[in-house]
Amino acid sequence: MTILEIVDLSINFGGLKAVDSLSFAVNEGQIFGLIGPNGAGKTTVFNCITRYYQPNQGRIVFGGQNILDIRSHDVIGKGIARTFQNMELFKSMTVLDNLLVGQHCHLDTNVFSEALSLPVKKRKEREISEKAQKVMELLGLSKYARDLVLSLPYGMQKMVEMGRALVSEPKLILLDEPAAGMNPSESKELSSLIKRLRDTRGITVLVVEHDMAMVRSICDEICVMDFGRKIAQGSADEICRNPQVIEAYLGCEEEGSGCFR
Predict the structure, then answer these.
(1) Which terminus of the chain, N or C, has less C-beta within 10 A?
(2) Where is the ABC transporter domain (predicted)?
(3) Domains and CATH numbers, the chain
(4) pTM (2 decimals)?
């Protein structure tokens, strides 16, 4: 069953066409890779999905609804969460506080319950705290709960950002270069985590990543972009052998040149 469908998506920045008539579909429960050289338009697609950008044409259908018809701050409430290429954390706050902030879309108390500290407010606070604790356990962050994010190593900060996305209980999570800056051991652990999120929590994953070993190991299907356009789509093995993909990455058409090594 299709959970996300991109239909004829285009967006221009001045005279530059950053995304050009892009179409692809992600099925529920998939780990779907969106790859391409730097500047191909991958993050721009993410920014259109999450409504940071308004495309010039096309549709983005999530759960049967064109999300271009909703406001940007309502996207997370529909079940879409994301991480960023450049982390967007509250680094002067603790790990726990970052995960609590990530649940703002589920805070449905009103001004009276907030002002009077009614039982419903206390119950909601307890629920979001418990949820944050469970996500920290999942990501190995529990012992850092009271630490300031800025004091953590880079790899742990990436996990905090992942945690902040997960506490919103997404149906679809967009991961923008999650392995950037990680060593091979950390990347391998991250790959296992992403597959576990799909297998145990039923979260569909759309991932932009330059670590081709990770992409090949976790993705059920891959869409390749170059200069804003889709040039190939298929399994990792199909993509690896595709002459257009090899040329886009290496500037040559030599079959088997190892673009996924």
Answers:
(1) N
(2) 4-252
(3) 1-79+170-255 (3.40.50.300), 89-169 (no CATH)
(4) 0.87
